[in-house]
Amino acid sequence: MSIRSLLPGRIGFGTAPLGNMFRAIPDEEAAATVQAAWDQGIRYFDTAPLYGAGLAEIRLGDVLAQQPRDEFVLSTKVGRVILDEVEDPASRELGEKGALFEHGRPNKIVNDYSADATLRSVEDSLRRLRTDRLDIVWVHDIAQDFYGDEWVSVYESARTGAFRALTRLKDEGVIKAWGLGVNKVEPLEMTLDLDEPQPDAFLLAGRYTLLDHERALQRLLPAALAQDVDIVVGGPYSSGILAGGSHFEYAEAPADIVDKVGRIKALADRNGIGIKAAALQFVLAHPAVAAAIPGATRPSRIAEDLGALTQNVPHGLWEALREQKIIAHDAPVPTS
Question: Which residues, in sequence order, are CB contacts of 85 under 8 Å at separation 6+?
C-alpha cells in the first residue's frame, strides 16, 4: 500500500537528536521541541530504540501521551533491543557512527533482527512510547555503514526474521505499514528485487539531498516509484550542514563539503531565500518522495522548517544549481 494516505502531511519530525545525538539535551528542551512541533501542526513523528538507547522514544512518548492517539502517525524501528544492564555508551560498536549517542542512556544495545527480537522490540517501544499501537515500523540500519563487510549476512537475517514478522503484524492489523530505515541505497535496491516479502515504504536518510543524490536518482527512486514503494527522506539537511550546522554524515564536515555548502548558500542568498528552503523543497520535488522528516532539538527550528516548506524558491536558483553541477540535470525540482 502507499503510505501517502497514512501520512498527515509532507513534513514530519525526526527524533534522532532527542537521543542526545552530539550533545546532552536537557529534558525540558527536548519536551519543548516536541511540543512546538505539535503546536505548529506536525502530526508525523519518527523515532527508534537506537536513539540514545531508548531516550528519544521516552521523551517523545512523554509529550505525545498527552494527545489523542488518533490524531498523529507514529513510526519506530526494529533491529536493536535495549536491555536493563548497562554499558559505556562511548565504547559501543556502531560502525562508522561510533560515538554518535555517547550522551544517551547507558543501557546495553543488542543488534538482533530475528523474528522474536522484532516482536520484543515492538513491545518495548510501545512501553517506552506510552502508546497502544505503532503505525509504521522500519527495519533499522541493515547496511554497510553499521556492519561493514558483514552487512549482507545481517540483511539476510532481517529478511528471514524481521521482514516476515512485520509482514505478519501488518496482515493481522497490528501495524499499518513497514519498510527499511537505512543510510545507504543498496539494501533498498536489493529489497525491491525480492519477490517476497514486499515493504510498503522506505526511510532513506542522507542519500537524497542537495549534497548527495546521484546514486539514488539513477535506479532506486525510479524503481521505488514503479513499484509504489514510497520514500520518506530522513536527514534532508545532511546531518545539519545544510541548516547552519557543522556536521555532515554525523561527523564534522570535510573541507570540500563546507565549500560546496558555501556555494549553495551564496546562490540562495542571491535569490533571496534560505538554504533550508532549497534543501527541503529539492527533496520533496521527486515524485517518489512522500515526506521528509528533519530533526530538531530547539523549539525555534520547527517554525524554520515549516517556513522553508512554503517559501517561494525562484526557478533561477535551480537553474544555477544545475549549471554549477551541484544538482543533477535530471533531478526533479519544484515547478513553482
Answer: 107, 108
Answer whether 0.90 is exceeded by the pTM.
yes
**How are beta strands 107-111 and 80-86 bridged, if at all?**
antiparallel
Cα of first residue to Cα of last residue in the chain, in angstroms, is 29
pLDDT tens for each residue of 101-145: 889 999 999 999 999 999 999 999 999 999 999 999 999 999 999
CA gap 318, 243 in Å, rounded: 18
Q: By 3-state DSSP, what share of the chain in percent is helix, strand and coil, each rounded to 5?
A: 45, 15, 40
How long a stretch of residues is the chain?
336
Helices (H), the chain: 27-39, 55-64, 115-129, 144-147, 151-160, 162-171, 186-192, 214-215, 221-226, 255-270, 275-284, 299-310, 315-323
Integer Cα distance of 238 and 253 in angstroms: 10
- DSSP three-state, residue 293: strand
**What three-state secondary structure class fits 128?**
helix
Q: Which residues contact 276 (CB under 8 A, 6 or more apart)?
A: 237, 242, 243, 304, 305, 308
pLDDT tens across 254-291, in order?
A: 999 999 999 999 999 999 999 999 999 999 999 999 99
* Residues designated catalytic: 46, 51, 77
